[in-house]
Structures are given as C-alpha cells and as structure tokens.
Amino acid sequence: MNQKKNCLLLFCVLSLVQSDSTTEKITSDQIIMPDDEIQDKLQNNECTVLSGTQEIVGICVPIKRCEVLFKLLEQVERRPDIKTFLLSLRCNRNKGTRICCPYSSVKAAKLKISDNFPNFLSPPDCGNTSITESRIIGGEFAERGAWPWLAALGYRTFENTHTSWMCGGTIITQQHVLTAAHCIKPKHTEYILHKVKLGAYDLTNNLDGIEITIDKAIIHPNYTFSTSSNDIGIIKLSRPINFNSNIQPICLPKNTRMQSETYVGHHPYVSGWGAINFDTGKKSLANQMQAQIPVVDNNFCNNVYIRHGRKIRNDQICAYDEKSQKDTCQGDSGGPLMLSIENTYYVIGIVSFGYKCGEPGYPGVYTRVTSYLNWISTMIT
User: Fold this and answer.
1) pLDDT tens by residue, 95-112
2) Is the same domain home to 98 and 194?
3) Does residue 142 fall inside a structural domain?
4) Is the distance from CB of 76 to CB of 10 less than 8 angstroms?
5) Where is the signal peptide (predicted)?
6) What is the three-class DSSP state of 304?
7) Does the annotation count 327 as an active-site position?
C-alpha cells in the first residue's frame, strides 16, 4: 500500500514537469524571468497557496519556470517531505499541472519544507564561525574563535574544590550543552561535574572565557557504561548564555537528508583540549587542538573492536585517518564531531571511546547524533 502511495506521489510530482514542453532560460538570482513575471501578472496568473502553515504568494507557472522548486525534483525519490511539499503548491489545474512559484524576490532559503524539530536552531542562527574552512584544514592548533560552540566541563571532588577540566561538550541552545553520558556519570565516581566553561581558548587562564554552573545534567536512560551504548547526555545551564563572537551554538543535523546519511567518506573535524599522548597523559590545556578525520565504514570498525568485546552499533559513527593516525584522546570525551555543509557546521557525533590514542588500526568511536534527535528535542523543550 505504501509503495503504491509513493509511486502515486512521484507520478503526480513528475507530471508537474512533463506537462510543460517548453524550456525557458532561468537565471541564478531569479526564480522566474522578470519579463515573464510581468506577463503572468497581466494574464492574472497570480496565486496564493497554503503549504502547511505557510502562505505562499507567487505566480502560477509550469515547474520548469520555477528554478528553486525545479531543483527540488532531484531529491524527490529520497525525500517524501519534498514530494508532499511540491504537491501542496499545485495551482490553476484548468491550465494543466502548474505550481505556485514564489515571486522572484523570495530566495530558496526562505522556503521552509516540513520541520520535525521546530525547537532546534536553524541556519543562520547556528553553526557560524569567523574562521574560514581554508584556515582550519591541516592546522594542529585551532585559531581563537574557530569553534565557538566548544565547552569544557569542570569537575571537583568533595575533598578538593579545585576545578579539573576533563571533558568536552557542544553548545546547542542558549541554555543546553550536548555531551557524552560518561562525562556526566564518570567512571571515577569521586569526581563531580559542577560547571561549564564557554568561549575559552586557554583553559589555564582563569580570565579566558566564562564559567556557568549547572542546573541539571541528564544522561540517556539506556546508557550502558560497559558497552558505551547510548553514550549521550545533555547539560542544562543555570542561566541562559549571552552569545558573542566567541560563544555560539552549533546546528543539529535535523533535515531528512542528514538523518539518512552514513557520512562514510566525509571528512569532519574534531577539536578540544585533550591528551596529546596516551602514555604520558600530557594535555594541551593552553591550546585548543583540532584535526580532520575521515568517517569509515561501521563494518570495518566493528571488525576491529569485536576482538575487544565491543560491538559497533548503527547509532555510532567511526572515524580514522590511516595515514596521519589523527584521533581524539581522553579529555576530548563528550566533544563534537563536526561537519561543514556550505560553511555551516553541524554536530554529527559525540566523542565516545577508542583504543589508546591514534593507535594504528583503531578508529575513534562517536555517538551518532541523528539517532537521538527525538530524545534531544524532548530534553531541551
């Protein structure tokens, strides 16, 4: 039944194209040509349609004359929401199958297709950095402000009130930080998570960045320490953050395409203040480190870790650079695996575990953020 329904939807959408045998030249800046728009207005071809909660006003034309909507046809097979969106824009069926194309002053970015997570931030309100990607690639040390969503998690013990910065996290809203469950509930139970540092580059400088206490810290209800399954948690800060150039939120991968992506072959980034050398435990607290690491296939990763009694799950991502042996180390736990898409950064993974640090043949393992979007949405509401 579902297959028939999908086929019917696809047939209807494709008919939007097939009904028009003419081809017009479309510019990159305009959805329809200005002269055509004037002519259509004279012919009373203006239209208003309701798509979801959006009222779209435009010109009723064959879809080939609407660049922004015509481009969406490329994604129709894998995006059911786009099928529904395009079908909702049909107009003036007496003249054949046409679509209500927004006026040329409306850009593609302003068309909102279905949003299953309206409480998540969307570009341009997230994922922005002042440092260009060309200045990040290949750098061992990050530039100040390169990763404005990075958070350092501070711990103390009952006996010692001195703060130790032992985990990382990622700002996702004005009051929430995403991290790993094992950072909230550490193996060494004498350590208590009590504050978060934001906007800092040098953790040895008490005046660098701001510190905010924690209202509550929540771990995933199905987190298991022994297997690192569901290794995800959310920290709610005691007060909202005032964003500035050094403190910004990252975007969550909420669109349908990102949710279905394996990310194998992509080259995301990691950054933090973690240990540089596993054996010595030497840390780089005075310098924010960064690396670009390719995502590898989960089957390869599973074959490596199964020898150690760890099974890699679909809700995990593995990344490993065989040539440079770059990796994240202890202390970077809970930090983000970040992917740049059109100069906007998304958190696709959370540093979970690995074998030593940059050990040949051993990928780093990350919690796959797209597998937990519903849970995140519930926790930040």
Assistant:
1) 567 888 876 434 333 444
2) no
3) no
4) yes
5) 1-19
6) helix
7) no
